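Illustration 12: Glycosyl transferase family 1.
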Amino acid sequence: MRVLHFFKTYWPDTFGGIERSIHAIAKGAEKYGVQSDVLSLSKSPETNTLAFDGHIAYKAKLDFEFASTGFSRDVFRHFRELSKEADVIHFHFPWPLMDIVNLATRHGKPTIATYHSDIVKQRTLLKLYQPLMFRFLGGMDRIVATSPNYLRSSEILRAFNSKTSVIPLGLSEGDYPVAAEETKARWRDRLPKRFFLFTGVLRYYKGVHVLLESARQTGFEVVLIGSGPVEDDLKRTVRQQNLANVHFLGALPDEDKVAILDLSLGLVFPSHLRSEAFGLSLVEAAMRGKPMISCEIGTGTSFVNLDGETGLVIRPNDATALSQAMARLWNDHQLALSYGANARRRYETNFTAEQMAQSYAELYREVAGSR
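Figure caption equivalent — predicted structure in token form:
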């Protein structure tokens, strides 16, 4: 069976949460007889075909971007050619151009869409896009939500409840390097003895401004891995408030990230808006057996991190609540260890790439067979 994944970005241009998920599905489903291709856009597609972990990443020329949406004339031709070879087409929502390509090419193939997130920021444009969006989702054979929490809380998904199933996102430990002892020793010498960790792209919805306020209130050491659009604003706040206990490390390779995560007291993930649909950083923390602090925003973050079991779930955008949660883990070592052990067990039960890939392989065959 051959499956074509379609999303606006992919390796090597970007490798964020959705891209990691596509990679894990493509790599893991090969074991079940599924050959995958991935089509995405690129500003400089020097070559249109790149081999990556057993599948091919195809690139169409990105012409321009508007409202976080990439546009391309070239992608219609690429999609038309690749869809002819596919048994199932796997769309990764949202990306409005994808809806247009699907409608314009009339490929006639079985389709599924993984619904990664509601459209949260572009509310005005959403009103214009809604008719096309509902036509696109209505035409899918199956829709996949990434958590039961998101299925319950999304008004859009509830409209398609009868054909929507849940397959949680998952990660493979094998895709992460083992942190060498010398790497851990190097970071141990450089970082505070005890610290909370944040990892992720520094975007408007990540709630890092709340974490900085909690760092000011508590004085606890906080380390941040990642870069992004609001990085300069956050660093300006740190300088203005003289927060010597906040340490920006920038984007780091996975080996360094794993080493620092292992050294940390736990992960603080203060995303406060629904744009944070799942939170693979939480899965990474659970995989390493670390307790977590996250916010209740009605999305998959509270499916990965169970309040009082794998960590603490607090009100969003509330620095006092976050400070209190950090203090509980800082002052109760046994509680932190217990949450971390529970998080590791929950990862093994619910969030491995193997489970995700197997579930998708079964869904591909079900959808193809129904045609």
